[in-house]
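Give me structure tokens for this 246-residue protein.
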Amino acid sequence: MHQFFVDPTQIRENIITITGKDVKQIKNVLRMRAGEEVAISDGITAKEYRCVIETIDTDCVICQLIFIKEADLELPSKVYLFQGLPKADKMELIIQKAVELGVYEIIPVASARAVVKLDEKKEQTKLARWQGIAEAAAKQSKRRIIPVVSSVLTFEAAVAVASQMDVKIIPYEMAGDMEKTKQLIGSIGVNQEIAVFIGPEGGFAENEIGDAMAAGIIPVTMGKRILRTETAGMTMLGWIMYQLEG
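Here you go.
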């Protein structure tokens, strides 16, 4: 069954109206017809609105509510991925997989060794594209919310934001105690805010690790091998998802 997201204002009692680019998707790509069922979420709550299409117009699709499904498919804690800006289109892959793995928010970070530098115009264009990828991944993985891709933060600003969270992790190649990593992941519980820092291709600079540690962010190892930036985030999020799903 196809899933779509709408703004909460588009949900009126037993009628839900789909607008925007999804209308073209429903009409011209999926070639759906009146009478077919769809799943709709508001991108904020854990509710799924199961509906049947009543009419398909040029600029909107009118759906009749059948029932509301309350099953919560989200992780019981909020995981924030602080991702050092990678080269090329790697960020798109990272966002897609992070959303599939249950991340709550993705914060791009301009760290010292990040090769990519975004000016204000480029940043707005990138953010719009990245948010679109997050929405598509949320639909594909049947998420109830659309994770936000925030504006790019400096490393200092990112550390300040993360310092207020319950669990704070920064994988670092010089951290060598795997047992410590296991214990830290194993201590993660429900209703927590979890910050995960992942460096760009060149990793984090030593002074950045020092600043992170001063803010209570704990360096951990991810094993004996050096992982690419796009692999490291997926691995850590996978471990956290495994812990929280259990």
